[in-house]
Amino acid sequence: MIVPPHTALLIIDVQQGLIDGPPAAIRAPQILVQLNAAIALARTRAMPILFVQHDGPPDSPLAAGSHAWQLHEALARQPIDKVIRKRASDAFCQTALKATLEQLAIDNLWLAGYASDFCLDSTVRSAAMQGYAVTVIADAHTSKDRPHLGGEQVIAHHNWLWANLDTPVHPVRVMPLHQLAALSGND
Q1: What is the pLDDT of residues 105-140, one digit of tens each?
Q2: Partners of 93 in the beta sheet?
Q3: How far, in Å, are 59, 72, 108, 154, 166 from residue 163 at the CA level?
Q4: What residues does each domain of the chain span?
Q5: Which of 5, 30, 33, 139 is 20 to 30 Å from 75 by CA-CA measure?
Q6: Backbone dihedral region of 82: left (phi > 0), alpha (psi from -120 to 50 degrees) or beta?
């Protein structure tokens, strides 16, 4: 399998309040480790890294500027990394994401982050339907327990769902980070 040269890592909504809670995201410490390993891998391949940050309404816990709204302090961010702000689940909806990807000549995305069943899912589907080649890092996204399903089940369900999603151009790949790391820069 080849990692095309026009690939970017997109990390969705890994923000203080969403990861640390309350309640905390499922496997929060391990997910942060995996995300930083994905960031390190992307840097070795000279891939652009984009962080998506959700802006909640002014009276919400994710109000812009609040502590909960901040990108997680444990992320290995650098000044060169781009931040895309959004107000809807889909990171493409009324944001600069598509224009940024076009400017960078990106047509392949590695996706990870929070929440598997909301913003990550919406963005995976949107990217795939727009013709991007999408790879979800299976062990670098998380959610929380939901009223009808545990967080681990949410994650497993979405990994299965994305791998079986009908898309118009490229199938969505769902791979653990160690498999992505084993691919050469041309794989």
Answers
A1: 999 999 999 999 999 999 999 999 999 999 999 999
A2: none
A3: 37, 28, 16, 14, 9
A4: 7-182
A5: 5
A6: beta
